[in-house]
């Protein structure tokens, strides 16, 4: 099967389903906030901490997870990650206290951290320069579908119990992990960069050497900062958008979940696929296309967020956040290809792990601080506007990255 021409795209389809489950399992909790708090009383800061702890643990685990994906079989790492986090999802359904939920979210952070670096690197292994942004974009599209289905958590919580949602999707993930044993395979031979000084390109991957190789590269350090800011922006908006709709427009939990996930993430799906396709097309005539396009997308999103957070008209708020949802994902489709341009291909998963580390640590802090500010009576619209201003910094750094890449 792996010798067939269609297998690289079949691989993307298989990974799309995993990515969907990955983000559905982690996003459900933000859409069932009211149901959880009714049963397990907690402050907004504590509720924000449930996501922050997940992100912090996820982030600190990501570099090691990426190294393991570079060092060993990527397919086995992916399948193992799916199996374990699905088991943890099922165990979350048994929670009866804040401490149990916090521990479960930390365990989910560890287990899910092994997936994204390995999956992104495996896609890069199987796809050429002509299709890699589109392939990555389609995979991230699977992630967007999982996020857009997050409202299911709030719906199940209102119609049954919030425990039931974690139980169902935990079982589904375990079954799918077993099926993938027969379908997911590594590529036997992967080309590596030949302009890197090394004794043998086939030498074993060493974690210390990988760190030295990556962080001596100024372009990689810049990308880490960019991805960290982008992650903070994304998590601050995604994590608190359901609450914003509910409180700003007096919506029910299900209605707020619908506006913040079912409408929002399908547009992000279109945006990430569009961002990958445009980058692959534009890169034929412009070597900086994969860098310029995300910067342009962020600059378009900035005024949209300001309009969405200022207005008291529901349709205008929805429209503003949908513009953000369309153009913000351009960077998601192109970050791994950018990493492939600036870094040693032997360390792609490790490098992406460090990107996740920075993104999740900064994002987790952002979500927790947002919750603490809410406890201090600071409105979410101000928090969203700060996130919008941060996108200007990201765009500036991306344009600077173009200059540095050309200079090198």
Features:
408 residues; mainly alpha; 18 helices; globular; disordered C terminus
What Rg, in angstroms, do the CA atoms define? 20 Å
Range of helix content = over 70%
Strand content: under 5%
Report the major sheet: none
Note poorly predicted spans: 191-202, 403-408
The shape is: globular
Oligomeric category? single chain
Number of strands: 0
Mean pLDDT, rounded to whole units?
84
Helix count, DSSP H or I runs of 4 or more residues: 18
Distance between the termini: 41 Å
Order of helices and strands: HHHHHHHHHHHHHHHHHH
3D architecture notes:
The chain is globular. The chain has 18 helices and no strands. The longest helix is centred in the middle third of the chain and has 31 residues, at 218-248. The chain is an all-alpha fold. Helix 1 (7-31) packs antiparallel against helix 6, helix 6 packs across helix 17 (348-375) and helix 11 packs antiparallel against helix 12 (253-262). It has helices at 7-31, 33-39, 44-71, 74-92, 98-112, 115-126, 132-148, 151-159, 162-180, 207-215, 218-248, 253-262, 264-282, 289-310, 314-327, 330-342, 348-375, 380-407.
Short structural description:
This protein has helices at 7-31, 33-39, 44-71, 74-92, 98-112, 115-126, 132-148, 151-159, 162-180, 207-215, 218-248, 253-262, 264-282, 289-310, 314-327, 330-342, 348-375, 380-407. It has 408 residues and is mostly helical.
């Amino acid at each position: 099967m792996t010798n067939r021409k269609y297998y690289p795209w079949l691989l993307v389809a298989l990974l799309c389903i995993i990515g969907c489950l990955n983000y559905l399992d982690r996003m459900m909790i933000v859409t069932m906030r009211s149901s959880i708090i009714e049963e397990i009383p907690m402050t907004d800061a504590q509720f924000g901490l449930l996501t922050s702890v997940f992100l912090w643990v996820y982030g600190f685990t990501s570099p090691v997870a990426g190294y393991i994906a570079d060092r060993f079989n990527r397919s086995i790492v992916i399948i193992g990650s799916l199996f374990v986090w699905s088991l943890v999802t099922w165990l979350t359904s048994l929670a009866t206290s804040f401490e149990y939920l916090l521990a479960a979210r930390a365990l989910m952070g560890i287990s899910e951290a092994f997936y994204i670096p390995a999956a992104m690197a495996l896609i890069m292994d199987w796809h050429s320069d002509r299709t890699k942004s589109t392939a990555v974009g389609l995979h991230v599209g699977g992630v967007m579908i999982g996020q857009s289905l997050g409202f299911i958590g709030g719906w199940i919580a209102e119609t049954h119990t919030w425990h039931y949602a974690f139980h169902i999707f935990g079982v589904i993930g375990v079954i799918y992990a077993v099926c993938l044993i027969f379908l997911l395979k590594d590529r036997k031979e992967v080309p590596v960069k030949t302009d890197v000084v090394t004794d043998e390109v086939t030498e074993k991957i060493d974690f210390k050497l990988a760190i030295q190789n990556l962080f001596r590269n100024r372009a990689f350090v810049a990308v880490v900062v960019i991805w960290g800011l982008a992650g903070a922006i994304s998590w601050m908006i995604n994590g608190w958008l359901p609450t914003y709709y509910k409180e700003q427009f007096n919506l029910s939990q299900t209605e707020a979940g619908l506006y913040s996930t079912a409408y929002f993430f399908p547009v992000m799906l279109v945006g990430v696929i569009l961002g990958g396709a445009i980058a692959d097309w534009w890169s034929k005539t412009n070597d900086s296309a994969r860098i310029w396009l995300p910067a342009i997308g962020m600059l378009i999103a900035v005024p949209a967020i300001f309009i969405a957070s200022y207005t008291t008209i529901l349709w205008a708020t929805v429209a503003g956040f949908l513009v953000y949802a369309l153009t913000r994902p351009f960077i998601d489709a192109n970050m791994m290809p950018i990493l492939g341009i600036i870094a040693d291909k032997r360390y792609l998963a490790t490098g992406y792990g460090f990107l996740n580390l920075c993104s999740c640590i900064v994002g987790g802090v952002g979500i927790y601080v947002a919750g603490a500010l809410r406890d201090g009576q600071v409105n979410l619209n101000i928090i969203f506007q700060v996130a919008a201003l941060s996108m200007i910094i990201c765009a500036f750094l991306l344009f600077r990255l173009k200059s540095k890449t050309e200079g090198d």
